[in-house]
Amino acid sequence: MMVRFPRAYKKIAAMLLTVAIAMSALGCGDLIYILDDSAGQEYEDYDDAYQSGYEAGYEDGYNTGRTDERDLWADSSEYWDDDPYNEWDEDDWYDDSEFYADGQEEYPSKEDSEDEYDEYYVSTGGTGVFTGDNGSGNTLTGNIPVISLYVDDANYSWTDSKEDNKTFAHTIKYLDIACRFLMDEASKWGQELNLIYDFYEDEDLGYSFSIEADSVNDYFNADCEIWHFIENSIDVGAIQQRYDAESVAIMVFINTDKSIEEVSCTTCFYAGHALESVYEFSYMFMHSNGEEETPAAFAHEMMHQFSAIDLYLEDDDIGLSEEEMQIIESEYPNDIMYTTYEEITWIPIYDAITNEISELDAYYIGWTDHSELVDRFDLMAR
To answer: What's the total number of domains in the chain?
Structure first.
């Protein structure tokens, strides 16, 4: 069943339609603020034109059928093999010709490898009280403040240009759509979820700062710089206490252009892998592969912080084999952890989220204690 959720944007919608937005110069740890550049300037039906443009573009050349679209999408993931900084890439990890050419008997540590990693990050611990070994995102339930970080990195920055203002406005709109979607879905599972994400109303939830690393290609160093900022500049414990929260969600917005091939991703406690810091966060690369990121991708990445697993890739750690992937594709083709595109046309949707949260997703994010698919596939327990 395809579910569409109407959206009431309240203050956010009014802001998008009635003011031109100019961001502050990005400094170290500045709270986000918005200046009214001049009253009366409006984005003239920008979002409608944006959506219709995508639909027209996909209609030409991509109407050969749903299976072909999926094959094209799968082929595009091959760029992961060329990413020297992607430590999760098995092709990179076990490439004998690259790492064993000098007769090494064991896989080299990060210090010994040729990757240009800085010294290991030593966490200061930060603040905040979190449950068990799940990091800053435990279950997707209760009161959860969503902290927004607007980051300038080695290649991309947030400026006061008209184009950047549009992208900035879309981060607010898409986050609103994603949070409302997740709260609506939680209620269907009998769960109470209150995502607190409006940093205009709650100023301790929005920040901007700069890092030296390339967040698109140098995850490790970018992660460390972002962790350093969170641990030393944000009192997460005080935020938890203020909102009576057991978890937090952290969204990192990078103003990338459409030429990059990397897609949004999350630094999280995933498949038993530990992090150098307790804080999980999602990189939202606002443009890549010729497209702007979608609200569904915002929800998808946030769910990763609360243990949701990807359902579009085989994963030995989780227990997802090729055969099981085919079953998921057949039985859950609209699962938000399988796709963030519209189910039938496979085009990006920007005014709603039309994907679904399956019982497998609900199990991993803590909305149910049992999943038939976990038992059926003998998958990793939450």
So the answer is: 1
